[in-house]
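Shapes recur. One chain:

:::
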Amino acid sequence: MKHLLHLITLMFAVILFTACEKEFPNPEMPDLSSVPSDNISPFELISPAGGVSLTVFQPNDNQVTISWQETKATGDRAVTYEWIADNADGNFSTPLLAIPSGNEGLDTEVTLTLGQIDAALAEIGVEVGTALDLKWTIRATAGTDVRLANTPRKISVRRGGLTIEVYVPNNTPADQDVYLAGMFEFAVGQNWQTPGSQPGLKMTNIGGGRYSITIAPPANGATFEYKYFLATAAAPNWGNGERKPTSGGNNDGGGIRNRRLTYQAGNDLVSDVVSIWEGYPYDHIVFKATLPESTPLFPTREVFVGGQWDLIGGAAPSSWQQPGSNGALEMTRDFDIEDEIVFFYAAPRPAEGTVAQYKYFLSLVTAPTWDNGESRGNRGYTFDPDVDLIEDTVEGWDNL
């Protein structure tokens, strides 16, 4: 009996040693959930190259095609393929993503839209705005035999896109939708489509008087123009665009000049405020500020008006909110004035005789700060029913 136990122990040691000496089909990144096998021949990845960066979002029909060499299994068995991705420090034992190729897995390429990748990431709980450094490969399977492509490749994926948010007036009608219109060929294939006719430019009401949309970003450094409109899919029209605020809530100032934005990769959140809709005026006052020529603007800074909004009213019921923390207090550039930097802000007219303090600031909705207010003390104003426009000149900014 003692000799039998010794023999069994010796045999186990030999088996263990042999198993440890045997290499996995891909020793760099074995699929630990599969049985190592040499019954599938080695194969290589073809495209895309390593180090690709993708920004994925919904909806997005732009495509990426992944391709690889065909491999063979012993006995002429059929080989099926999956594109798999894992964390940069993972080993593909439990990949984050596993997507079979077409033709029931027999094709040696798979074409995915960026929207499909975004949906797959959303399904595994990746939040919008999250960036992942991943590695990917192809898993070939024939029966119980599995082999990974010889050399994995790196890929960086970010759930996002260009997100545009807008705060709208309190009297925005509930039976109208908010649409973007402009030079959005890069996102929806055509420029200046009638508001209501392009579902890809319909914004989503996210509450608090705010609408949002995420679209494909333009080329880095590209400048495009756009505006906001009210419309419905049942009645597309140009009739209810944003207007420039004018005396007494009238619309006699005409439509606001097109907004202009120069996109810089990484600055993927744009925040705006609509003052008035055509056809939906209200009694308001206008704050107008002329800024120094040296003022840094988006994407490094945006212009806000802060103050005792609990007295003035409008979209900010509390007093002295940190600039940038409430996007409803962001000012709008007047592009009709080309030789100066002029911004405006409209607010519902407060009661006659109301005395309130206010001040202009530079900040960002992504990084609120008190650090860059105008270089002076608080401004004060007593509201007069015969005065609709408050005009100020900013001489300089703190810490800039």
